[in-house]
Amino acid sequence: MTTSTTIRPMAYTDMPILHGDWDKFADDRHTHLKRLGNVIYLQPGFFRNEDVKQLQNRKLIGLTAVDSTTDEIMGSCSLWFVGFQPEEVPWTEPGPEPESEIRWCEENAKILAELNAQPVDEARKEANAMIDSLDAMEDKDMKYWQSVLMPPGSKCIVVSGFSVLPQYRHKGVGGALLKWGTDQADRFGVHMWVHSSEAAVKAYSNAGFNVVGELDVDMDKYAPGPPPEGVDVPWGHYIIRYMKRLPKE
């Protein structure tokens, strides 16, 4: 069953819902592993803080999907317009940042500072080091594919964020968000690419993206502890896919 969807520019007031109590990584085993360490982008509020900052960036477009009937927020997508002039980017002024968001960011910064100031025992140090080595390996791979997919002088659109609230998945919401981006890529005659999680591969494939590279992560090699299922279950392998979409003529 599809949902009637409207795509509009992301607003500051969307943040409490888009980054509220639901966990966008709840089904992602790779993220579960990384949470055994101290990866900065998995700390509380990181993505909300980043989205607030990016709303003022003229090279980044934040999109929100809302139900056309109820106006309920269903998901979001962030697009990075690489190599574009600011005046080319279909950016919309987000308006002044509400005092509520400013206060939230300040309070969250204090909470993170307190968490990071807590003493770390040897077991935690070892766990952090193992996850840091995983993160470093993946970052090296990402930089390689960035050099392949957008070498200096490139003009392209990168999907830098994509999520749909659980109750709205498999209803065409993700497709509507990606179509806004692919329409822009076709209009400008540029390619798009994305560093895809396992769960999102089908949505990108349906939008015309093709796999151009893979990173097979042996998660047990980097695991400082057992998975949620228990000590007798391996973490297994996780495939990160680099996907590219060429513009339609």
TrEMBL record:
Signal peptide region: none
UniProt KW keywords: Acyltransferase, Transferase
GO function term, MF aspect, one: acyltransferase activity, transferring groups other than amino-acyl groups
Alphabetical list of CDD domains matching this protein: NAT_SF
Positions of the N-acetyltransferase domain: 86-240
UniProt xrefs under InterPro entries: Acyl_CoA_acyltransferase, GNAT_dom, Trichothecene_AcTrans
Pfam families (UniProt xref): Acetyltransf_1
Annotated protein name in UniProt: Acyl-CoA N-acyltransferase
